[in-house]
Every structure is written in C-alpha cells, then in structure tokens.
Amino acid sequence: MKGFTLVYSDSVSKYLEKIPKDRQVQILRKLDLLPIDPKLLDIVKMGGRENTYRVRVGSYRIILVVDFTNKIIKVERVGTKQEMEKYY
Questions:
Q1: Which sequence spans correspond to the domains of the chain?
Q2: Using CA atoms, how far apart are residues 74 and 61, in angstroms rounded to an integer?
Q3: How far from the centroid of its chain's Cα atoms is residue 37's Cα?
Q4: Domain at 5-87: CATH code
Q5: What is the spatial distance between Cα 60 and Cα 15, in angstroms, rounded to a whole number?
Q6: Dist CA 85 CA 31 (whole Å)
C-alpha cells in the first residue's frame, strides 16, 4: 500500500522556524507520521470545510486538507489554538 504525499507551503516552513525548537520537533514528528496513514493519528474533521482536518500537538494545531482519492495531504496552516481561532 502506497502512502500519502505530504505537501506544505513556504509559510508553514517560515512559521516553524519562528517557534521554539522543542515544539518544532514535536510538530515535525507528527508530520512525519502523516504520510503513512492520516487516519492512524488523532485527526479531527473540521465542520463546515470539506476534506479539512486538524491535528493537535500540545498547544499547537496543524490544519490539513486531505485528498484521500489522490493520496495527497496539504499542510495548510500551523499555529497555536488562539491563532487558529482567527481563521477557523
């Protein structure tokens, strides 16, 4: 079984560079597990948005758009819970 392809934008990379190293490591470990099978992790479907999910990593949230047909996971945004409330 082929895994998923993980795609994320430059803005996600830039955000990760700004946060503490220990949080970067936690988030990157979670992102490394996503391509295997996103359903194995504690992902929660976000209401009102098609194919949009969130993954909790401590006080941070990772917002994903998952295309199960083409097996692509797009990391849309990473931020704290308070930052995510502005957008979602």
A1: 5-87
A2: 14
A3: 13
A4: 3.30.2310.20
A5: 12
A6: 21
